[in-house]
Amino acid sequence: MNDAMNCVEEHHRGRSVAIGTSPLVISYSPTKVINRKNEPSKLGEKVTHILLLNVHNPTYPINTNVIHSICNRIAEVVRIVVFKRRQVQVLVEFKTPEDATAVKKELHGADIYSGSCTLHIEYARTPKLNVKKNDENTWDYTNPSLNMPERSAPKAGLLEPPPDYRPPPRYDPYYDYPRYDAPHHPPPPMGYNYDTAYPMPRDSGYSSRGYESDDEPATMMVYGMNANLFDCDKLFNLLCLFGNVNKVKFLISKEGCAMVEMAGKHALERAMQALLHVKCFGRKLELSYSKQNSVNDVKNVKLLPNGKPSFENYATSRFNRFTTPKAASRNRIQVPKDTLHFYNCPPGTTEPEIRGIINKFKAPQPVKMSFLPSRDDKSKVTGMMQFDSVNDATDCILLVNNTPVVAEETSSYMKLCFSQSGSSRD
Q1: Given CA atoms 130, 132, 135, 136 in this order, what sign does their dihedral have?
Q2: For the purposes of burial, counting CB atoms within 10 Å of the CB of 68, is it exposed (0-12), middle (13-18) or buried (19 or more)?
Q3: Beta bridge pairs of residue 116
Q4: Order of strands, sheet of 311-313, starting from the edge strand that comes earlier in the sequence
Q5: What does the mean pLDDT of the chain come to?
Q6: Can you give the pLDDT at residue 172?
Q7: What are all long-range contacts of 235-239, with beta carbons under 8 Å and residues at least 24 apart?
């Protein structure tokens, strides 16, 4: 107090201070304390474990997946509730007030996307968030199976089965993914990853798993790629696992950067969430929404450093896997794992032949390979490949996915995807 009084008195005596040629005017302020940015007010703001995020200038969609992506890397998120009334507001619950404070300190005033979706964060007064269902507006990460339909008990049969008869095991190459070290188990619910206990974006609005019917295209930016190794086909090989890819365009003026047009926003969100922390050719990819709704066709296509074209249109590609409800239903969308499922190889394909193809493209070799039983000699060959790391498995998909395989005078394109088996941690 004495220091403040001395400053004012000296100013009134004519001993003013100037910054450059501008003199300072010193007087008393009605404010009793100066609140620093990102710190709770000393006048009574209560620190809680729940934050209220006010999103200003929400140019892009804000949902539970977006908020979880930016908050969970700082502290574990418990629940999220998104309000979209006069403005976009989000309540985010954490385990402790310290976690909430850490998130507030780092994200207050930040833009979710460059130049838009600015966050103004304060502590919420509500003691707990009530979430009744998991969707794009509300999510309870402690209960990933919330609002999932329960399986009904099987109906009683008319007769007891014969005592000495054992029915043959049912096998479906698209759904039966046995682990190397565990007995057969049913696949997890769609959109749920047992390794991370974090649900992938759900396919609400789709007539079948991942099938984009009457959906508008959505565009994202991909940064951080190795410009000497990446090209349109390699990026397509990875993204086609999460939805139909329309176009890929590498920016010649910005090394290691590309625009990708997916067939729908749900496919785009699945890819962005799954590849959040993935490394490709030793570099971590960064994916974000693009300001453009689509990728324009390029007439004079330039070449990349590896000699491949910088633009490709995949809208009618045979390698898109979600073109019909039936085709989409065969896909099990997974986050990157150290184990791959390979299928669609011609009958008679052997392990040395597959390893030879992998070696031809200088991709990482799996440490273990196993073949799943075929229905008959004319059935396509399918199996599992286990790698040393998630990064090796991802690089193998980039280089080998959708590669032609020739065996016993027949040929087809080998398809790869991440298996529900294995680990998502390196």
Answers
A1: negative
A2: buried
A3: 113
A4: 286-289, 218-223, 258-262, 245-250, 311-313
A5: 80
A6: 37
A7: 235/260, 235/398, 236/312, 236/314, 236/317, 236/319, 237/397, 237/398, 237/399, 237/400, 237/401, 237/402, 237/416, 238/275, 238/280, 238/394, 238/397, 238/398, 238/401, 239/271
Backbone torsions φ then ψ of 384, nearest 5 degrees: -130, 145
Distance (Å, rounded) from C-alpha 222 to C-alpha 399?
A: 18
Can you read off the two tokens belonging to residue 112?
A: 């979710």
| pLDDT range class, residue 411, cuts 50, 70, 90 | confident
In the chain, % of residues over pLDDT 90: 46
pLDDT digits (tens, 9 = 90+) for 134-157: 888 999 999 877 765 554 555 666
In the prediction, which pLDDT does 323 show?
Answer: 87
Q: Tens digits of per-residue pLDDT, 169-198?
A: 443 333 333 333 333 333 333 333 333 333
Torsion of CA 295, 301, 303, 308, to 10 degrees: 70
CA angle, residues 311, 61, 251, in degrees to nearest 5: 20
Token couple for 418: 């991440």
Between CA 2 and CA 7 the distance in angstroms is 9
Identify the pLDDT of residue 169.
Answer: 44
* Distance (Å) of CA 312 to CA 110, 233, 316, 382, 394: 35, 8, 11, 29, 21
Quickly count: other Cβ atoms within 10 Å of residue 274's Cβ.
Answer: 23
Nearest Cα neighbor of 232 from 241, 242, 222, 243 is 222
